[in-house]
C-alpha cells in the first residue's frame, strides 16, 4: 500500500516536471519568434511608433495582378484579411517583402511602423545615389 502511494507521487512529480518543461519550450519559442523571424530582428526601441504620410508614400506601390501558378489558394491582405483583386493598389514593405492593400498598410503604418506579419521595421534606410542608379538600370518601375 505504501509502495503504491510512493509510485503515484513519483509519477505525479515526473508529470509535473514534463509539463513545466513543455511550457518553458513553448514560451521560449514564442519569445524568440517575436524577436526575430526569417533573420529580421525586431527591436521595439529602433522602431518609432508611427510613420509620416510622406515616408509611407515613398514605399513601393504596385497594381495587383493575378498570376496563376500551381496554387489555387487566394492571396490575402494581412491587415483587412480580404483577398487581393486584380487592379487594386498594393504596397510592398522593402525589408521583408510582404504585400498589403495600400490603403490598409498606410493606415497601419500611421499607427505602428512595423510589418503586421513579421514585425520588421517598415522604415527603409535612405538609398545612396549609386543604389538609385542601379535600380533604374534594372528597370524596376513602381508607382
UniProtKB/TrEMBL annotation:
Gene Ontology cellular-component annotations:
membrane
Which parts of the chain span the membrane according to its record? 6-27
Compartmental location: Membrane
Q: GO molecular-function annotation terms?
A: transferase activity; zinc ion binding
The record's listing under SMART domains reads: RING
Pfam families assigned: zf-RING_2 (PF13639)
* Presence of the UniProt keyword Zinc-finger in the record: yes
The pathway is: Protein modification; protein ubiquitination
Write down the InterPro entries for this protein, in alphabetical order. Answer: Znf_RING, Znf_RING/FYVE/PHD
- Family matches, as CDD domains: RING-H2_EL5-like
Q: Where is the RING-type domain?
A: 77-119
| First-listed, main subcellular location of the protein, grouped into a coarse class | membrane
Membrane-topology annotation of the record: Single-pass membrane protein
- Record's keyword terms, sorted: Membrane, Metal-binding, Transferase, Transmembrane, Transmembrane helix, Ubl conjugation pathway, Zinc, Zinc-finger
Family to which the UniProt record says this protein belongs: Belongs to the RING-type zinc finger family. ATL subfamily.
Q: Note the PANTHER family from the entry.
A: E3 UBIQUITIN-PROTEIN LIGASE RNF13-LIKE, RING-H2 FINGER PROTEIN ATL18
Q: What is this protein called?
A: RING-H2 finger protein ATL77-like
Taxonomic lineage of the native organism: Eukaryota, Viridiplantae, Streptophyta, Embryophyta, Tracheophyta
Amino acid at each position: 500500500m505504501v509502495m503504491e502511494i510512493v509510485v503515484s507521487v513519483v509519477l505525479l512529480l515526473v508529470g509535473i516536471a514534463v509539463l513545466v518543461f513543455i511550457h518553458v519550450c513553448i514560451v521560449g519559442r514564442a519569445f524568440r519568434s517575436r524577436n526575430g523571424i526569417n533573420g529580421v530582428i525586431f527591436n521595439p526601441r529602433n522602431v518609432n511608433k508611427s510613420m509620416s504620410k510622406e515616408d509611407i508614400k515613398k514605399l513601393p506601390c504596385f497594381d495587383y495582378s493575378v498570376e496563376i501558378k500551381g496554387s489555387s489558394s487566394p492571396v490575402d491582405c494581412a491587415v483587412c484579411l480580404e483577398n487581393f483583386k486584380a487592379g487594386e493598389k498594393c504596397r510592398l514593405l522593402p525589408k521583408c517583402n510582404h504585400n498589403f492593400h495600400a490603403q490598409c498598410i498606410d493606415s497601419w503604418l500611421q499607427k505602428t511602423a512595423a510589418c503586421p506579419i513579421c514585425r520588421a521595421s517598415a522604415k527603409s534606410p535612405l538609398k545612396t545615389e549609386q543604389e538609385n542608379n542601379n535600380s533604374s538600370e534594372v528597370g524596376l518601375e513602381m508607382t
